[in-house]
């Protein structure tokens, strides 16, 4: 069963568990890769901090997870 994003999912957790999500993060202009705050920021907080459409970010991250996440 594929993993689903939830309200507690951190940006760091997504990138560690699904390396393909790193591409999504970078495509959205986010610098979460290597950021010390990524281990604390949830998807919602990161979207808000970067002034992004949270729903679109979640869809794109979920698509990376669903695709298998290998990168």
UniProtKB/TrEMBL annotation:
Domain DUF1858: 6-57
Transmembrane portions of the chain: none
SUPFAM superfamilies, sorted: SP0561-like
A Pfam family recorded for this sequence: DUF1858
NCBIfam families recorded: prismane_assoc
Protein's UniProt name: Hybrid cluster-associated redox disulfide protein
């Amino acid at each position: 069963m594929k993993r689903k994003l939830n309200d507690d999912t951190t940006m760091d957790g997504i990138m560690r568990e699904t390396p393909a999500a790193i591409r999504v993060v970078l495509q959205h202009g986010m610098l979460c890769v290597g950021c010390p705050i990524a281990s604390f920021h949830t998807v919602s907080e990161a979207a808000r901090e970067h002034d992004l459409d949270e729903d679109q970010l979640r869809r794109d991250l979920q698509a990376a997870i669903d695709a298998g996440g290998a990168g």
